[in-house]
Specification:
mainly alpha; Growth Hormone, Chain: A; two-stranded parallel ribbon; 24 helices; globular; disordered N terminus; transmembrane transporter activity
Amino acid sequence: MSEKVDEKSVERVASIDEKYVVHDDPNDPNALVEGSEGVTKHELDTLRHVADKFPYAAWLIVIVELAERWTYYGTANIFNNYIRGPLPPGSTNGAVVFDEDRAGGIAGALDRGQTVSFAIRTFNTFFVYVTPFLGAIIADTMWGRYKTILVFSIICLAGHVVLVGSASPSAIANGDVAFGLLIVSIVIIAIGAGSIKANVSPMIAEQYTGKLRKNTLKSGETVIISPAVTIQSVYLWFYAAINLGSCGAISASFLARDHGYWIAWLVPTGIFVLVPGVLFFGRKAYVTTPPRGSIILETARVIRYALGPAWSINPAQTIRNIRAPGFWDPAKPSTYSAGQAPSGITWDEEFVGEVARTCNACAVFCFLPFFWLCYSQIDGNLGTTAAGMTLNGSPNDLIQNLNPIGIIVMVPIFDFLIYPFLRRRGINFSPIKRMYAGFLVAGLAMVYASVLQHYINQSSPCQDNEPSACETERGTPNPSPLNVWIVSGPYLLVGMSEIFTSITSLEYAYTKAPARMKSVVMSFSQFQVAISAAINLALTAVNAEVHFVWLYGSFAIVAWVIGTIFFITFRGLDRRENSLNSIGKGDRAGFADEQSHAVTEKS
């Protein structure tokens, strides 16, 4: 929402100067930008870009996302203690029964240990980020995005009801029953939440239908009203809603500790009722897209035709062929003489260009699992780190809420101050640079966590032997004297890295994906979290407290190395950001080659 243009304080440029004509040469500075309302290439490159106003329907979807994420994080963020820890003395529902000897007590229930807790939480993350493909396919082939979100919100609500039942005292009394119902609820919630996730992100951006245009401010300055900047701002505030919702875990931590887990999960379940409610309330306001039919098989065939001539026994030659300007030509109908095209080519030139853009966007996302490895540490392992510190009445799983709180505070700072300041100074902090910055900051967060864990181990009465489980001879907690709030550093740093990398990946998925493939590309972007979770599952044996120092440090090195490779690989796309954003926005096919070659320019 940075630098929003109030229609009452802005005079719209209503006419196009007659000297501006559409040229075939996109390098001509007086050529109109494809799909714009009278903006020339020269103006696009020289005038300041600002964001447009958000439509009302977009804010309704923000509310939907806030309620859905409140419910998800208000349940998932307290899984660690619930699975890992035993029932506190005298408790039947996981709550701590306080007396003077148990002031530092930690809620728990199933007593399955850190490794099992890590495996279940990682499986939950994996499944939540695999199921977006299900929602994307159903939306594209059957129901459209709106109906898909509505139907799967009902399914998700049913999963939360099962979760509440799994934590009842009678279920916890039989640990196997509670554990089995927990797994069932995780599967149901993942199907619902993942299918919603695939569609709500593109749906919010679809509510904005403005075009690239010029406006004159009261100050006399002519600016570019930029859809790209607007979408960047939309996703900043969309992500703020996600993190405001995830603050629901603050109340969940206290509810679990003081009243038990079934109460802690009943509250967010009630909040989730807002999701179908707000969706139904705004049904006449939304910009909706009908199902367009499945294009996944056709996309695979286009890639197969293009890859056929590119294969070589020499891998380096294969890579060179893929990067060659004519890589997509074998899949284009125009490559063949009339009547000579293979029978399998049933598409037009434009579809080949769309597939090229899709591959281009998806290739960028392939590096993100290594970013999400760093993020995954704040989802549980750092909570265990906090459990070995002096709590002073704070639940150990409360601290992780500093991550969303930090993001909520930082989003307005970036949207109103930092990003506009950079644009005014002509600094092009474009998507690839922002995502690279996220890798660097995430690595810094892991260095902080590694150093902190070292000092906890050294100062704990139990030394390196699981400080979180250290007890006195009387069975009361005996933590490190370090105050638990020192662990806030990694949470805040990871939050900043999310603003750079995660938010930008949502923006990139939407702006670079063709209209017919937005749900699929968004799902592929989110699937990288699932890949990260799968890597984490393979690392289950080292996700133990005794290995945390080296685990955090290793993830820092991985983030910096992979992030640097990412930037070197894709820095060429940043130089072509404006041209990539204008592809497919107009009626002419003159820029078709821009689409088809976008995937080849990565250096």
